[in-house]
Every structure is written in C-alpha cells, then in structure tokens.
Write a structure and sequence with these properties.
Elements: H1 2-30, E1 35-38, H2 46-54, H3 60-66, E2 80-83, H4 91-106, H5 120-126, H6 129-142, H7 155-169, H8 173-186, H9 191-204, H10 207-220, H11 228-235
Length: about 240
C-alpha cells in the first residue's frame, strides 16, 4: 500500500514538472520582444529603413522576412513593420546615415555645380574640362541603382527622366527641364528627376525658380534637407535689382 502511494506521488510530481515546463515554454514564446516601426517620410523604402535602424541597407532582407514581404517589397506610408532585432541606431544617428548614403550615391558634395554664375570659384572650375567629365561620370554612375533603392519609380516616370537626361547631355536644357519636371510630378519619391531639375535650373540661371523647386523638394524629402547644395540654394542671397 505504501509503495502504491509512493508511486502515485511520483506520477503526480512528474505531471507537475511537465505542466510547469509547458507553462514556462509558452511564457518564453509569448514574452518574446518585438520592435515596431511606422513607415514615414524620412525613410520610405526598406533599404532606407534598414539604414535608418541598423546602419546597413542590406538589412532590408531581414525586415522583409520578418514581415513576410515579397519582391519588390512595396510598403506604404503609415504601415506598421515588425522588427525582431532591436534597432542599433538612435534617430539622429539614423538620419546621418541616410544623409551620408544619398550624398555618396549622387555625389552631392560638389556644390560648386549649383553656385551662383558670378561665383569666381565656380567659373574657374568650369574651365577645367577634366573636372566636368568627372562630374558627369559621377552623375551617370549614380543613376545605376538597384530596384530596391528606388522602389517608387514607375515606367512612365523613368522613361521621361531618361529622355530628359539624354537632352541634358545634348545641352538642350529647356527641353530637358520640361521632361524632368513631368517625371517628378508623376512620381514624387523618384529622386533623379528632382536632382537634375534643380541642376538644370541652375545651369539656365533661373535661380528664383530653382529656389522654389528646392522648397518643394525639402517638403517631399525632409530627410535630405541638409544636403550641401540644398542648403546653398536655400541660403543664397536674393539677386540685387538694378
């Protein structure tokens, strides 16, 4: 009888151990911590969000995996994304990463391109043909981007931009300007037509109009507001009336 009672005790304890194990296991699953990010104007695609959160654009693959997103990884403003890895950067650090990324991609540090036409330094640089060739090459290279980098482009906006770029290279600036403008009006998140519209207006000497376009650009892409050529156009003194 004592052995029977002892056996029951052992069975009861084994059952309790099993029950506790199950509860602990469930608790560990339910207590797994997730982080969330709401898609906003500062980072509109997965590459930018990955850069903003983790300092590496290549992390876009992980973010897509965590949210069961399929190529071409379309996301919308206001969409809630789940992050299984804690963000590594602060908001300020993330903004600097994105700013650095766009500076490098479009080589937007050579702000002499957008200097006033009477700027002695700009005129001197324009006399150096090699420098002009280097600048053109850098812009051409900047356009060779992966689909994930510019996922908002549409066939129509891209074709208009490329046609405008061809006219720009042929020095047909007014015609090129028209196509750049149409391209960015179709798809405001597509960066190249904005960049070349601002550049073309500077080449044409339409400085007031250039400043207006820069204002629109900053409203559409606030995370790029501190780019050197943007700040230069914004801070340029108004032309003196004669």
């Amino acid at each position: 009888m004592f052995l029977c009672f002892e056996k029951k005790i052992i069975i009861f304890l084994a059952f309790c151990y099993f029950l506790v194990s199950v509860l602990v296991s469930e608790a560990s699953v339910t207590s797994q911590k997730y982080y969330y990010h709401i898609v906003n104007v500062e980072a509109r695609n997965l590459s930018a969000i990955a850069l903003f959160m983790y300092g590496k654009s290549s992390m876009y693959k992980k973010i897509a995996q965590w949210n069961q997103l399929q190529p071409p990884f379309k996301i919308k403003l206001g969409q809630k994304l789940k992050l299984e890895l804690q963000p590594l950067l602060t908001k300020e650090e993330g903004e600097k990463k994105i700013l650095s990324y766009w500076r490098k991609k479009f080589d937007l540090n050579f702000d002499h391109q957008f200097a006033h036409q009477n700027d002695v330094r700009a005129i001197a640089l324009k006399t150096v043909e090699l420098k002009k060739v280097e600048i053109k090459q850098k812009f051409d290279e900047a356009l060779k981007v992966k689909p994930v980098d510019i996922e908002f482009e549409t066939p129509d906006s891209k074709k208009l931009f490329l046609d405008g770029k061809k006219l720009f290279d042929e020095k047909k600036l007014p015609e090129a300007l028209s196509l750049f403008r149409k391209s960015r009006e179709i798809e405001k998140e597509y960066l190249p037509p904005w960049i070349f519209e601002i550049k073309t207006l500077g080449e044409l000497g339409n400085l007031e109009e250039q400043k207006q376009v820069v204002t629109m650009f900053v409203k559409t892409h606030p995370n790029l507001k501190n780019l050197p050529f943007i700040k230069q156009v914004e801070n340029r003194a108004p032309a003196k009336e004669h």
